Amino acid sequence: MLKKVSKLAVLLCMLAIAGSTYAQEEVPEYPQYGFWSNWSIGPNISLMYEPDVKGFYGVKDPMWWGGGLNFGPGITFQKEVDRGTFFRIRANWTSILNSNKGYDANRQVNPWRSQWLGITDPTITMDRHAAITADYVLSLNNSFHNWDPSRRFSIYVFAGGGLAWSVNQARAAYNWGIQFDAGLGASYRVCDRSTLYFELEADILGDAPAFWKKGVGFHHTDFLATIGYLYHLGITAADKELIAQRALLTKANFDALTAENEAVKDELAQAKDNEKKLKDQIEKLNAQANNVNKEELVRAQQVSDSLNNILDKLKADQLNYYAIPFSVLYANDDWHVSSYEMIKVKAVSRVMKDNPDLKLTIVGFCDYTASDAYNMKLSQKRAEEVKRLMVNKYGIDPDRLKVDWKGKTVAFGDIHYWLNRRVSFYRVIE
User: Fold this and answer.
1) What pTM, to 2 d.p., does this model score?
2) Does residue 224 sit in helix, strand or coil?
3) What is the CATH number of domain 2-244?
4) pLDDT tier at 26 (50, 70, 90 boundaries)?
5) Pick the CATH number of 318-430 from 3.30.1330.60, 3.40.710.10, 3.40.50.300, 3.30.200.20
């Protein structure tokens, strides 16, 4: 009988594990957590039936292990390992309340027990035991179907083993032993933190020395019905931060940054093309000037001077010509770069890395909500903070960056408009 029960339990576990191989495809990815995340703890109460065992392998034992009904509590620690796999440790004392066996002439009262415990009535109570076991739990729902984090009801199988402490009332014997258990359970998640479960379980117990000495190995079996409650402790702060970081590394975010970077590259390429055309025109005019007479040479020189004056004017009034077509914006009376505006600083830094000859002037501006002196200082802080981030965080050579600040002396439209709280980037024309 014991062999059949143990073989059936092992077969059920093997079928469940093998079945998980044929789970449906396109299973959602299970988030990976650290060791201290996804633990649960909770109490349980078990009703245990223990058969009355008189002997093994045909050998009659007058001091057999008594049977009957037991009732007792326990506690469970459970760790969610994967989408359908759990590991748990249980401590159960299932014999606090139990039924009594009436007088039986075939059962003997141990003299030591009678003398020291003062027992003269040969009435024998049924045997007791406690156990600490470690179990492997496999969810059949998540193994044979796609993993669904919102699923509330689950059917599972489990198997495991551990240490047992048994008391034979007839012989007043206290035996350390080994216990193997297996069973079937069903759980219902009431909310994110609370789960109720019900289990049917079969145990096989044996004295520990019998596994390496001659004699009878297993001395009795138990059958249990257990109800319990588990409180989910959640995930650690470190795992929450890691999950948030992984959420930012999505393909959509990457594609958006890539598209923005490509747009900046196109605008920079267009600016380079315009600069080249201007230089070609200057060179063409200079070449023509070399082929004309003195008067034409004078005229050409005048044209060249005029173009140089234009370039000088461009250098003197660079604030009217953006090198990068956006600005870093700020809240009122703030000079720190927000996490959203940091994307622009990163994009400008990427452009400078892709174009090592490019040099920029970083200019800070303010609106009209404070004094001239205060706004001048605030605009300086804004420009210097952006340069510091580009140098320290993104590795831009500080010699390629100049810093300037205009306070509220230069405005776009209405001086009160929020766009004037900004840091803008201008090409250095050399």
Assistant:
1) 0.47
2) strand
3) 2.40.160.20
4) very low
5) 3.30.1330.60
